[in-house]
Amino acid sequence: MAKDIKIFTTNTCSYCVMVKRFLDMKGQKYDVINLDDHPERNQEALDVSGGALTVPITVVTKHDDTQEVIVGYNLSRLAPAIA
Questions:
Q1: Residue 45: partners with Cβ closer than 8 Å, 6 or more residues away
Q2: N or C, fewer C-beta in 10 Å, the chain?
Q3: Per-residue model confidence as pLDDT tens digits over 11-31
Q4: H helical segments located in the chain
């Protein structure tokens, strides 16, 4: 299982809701950074995603402290990242 999961979201992102729902179904805990509420974190989201201008941006930190960044709603990458 993942050590830490962080999701960058916005208020109007339906894919963000779907990622959170998937993680809830898998019993995963995660932190949400809502970029509408915290615009000062926009640069952090851009940096971690390699400049992606879309959300969700899910950052999975594993127990060995490596990180996997999944941009968008991509269960084929998210599911193995949290396993």
A1: 8, 33, 35, 52, 55, 57
A2: C
A3: 999 999 999 999 999 999 999
A4: 14-25, 42-49, 75-82
Q: If we measure between CA atoms, which residue out of 30, 45, 10, 43 comes closest to residue 81?
A: 30
CB half-sphere exposure, 44, CA atoms < 13 A: 13
CB-side exposure of 30: number of CA atoms within 13 Å?
Answer: 29
Strand partners, 60: 5, 68
SS3 28: coil
Q: Residues of 18-33 as b/e, b for ≥16 C-beta within 10 angstroms? A: ebbebbeeeeeebeeb
Rounded to an integer, what is the distance from CA 10 to the centroid of its chain? 11
Cis ω before 80 (30° cut-off from 0): no
| pTM score | 0.94
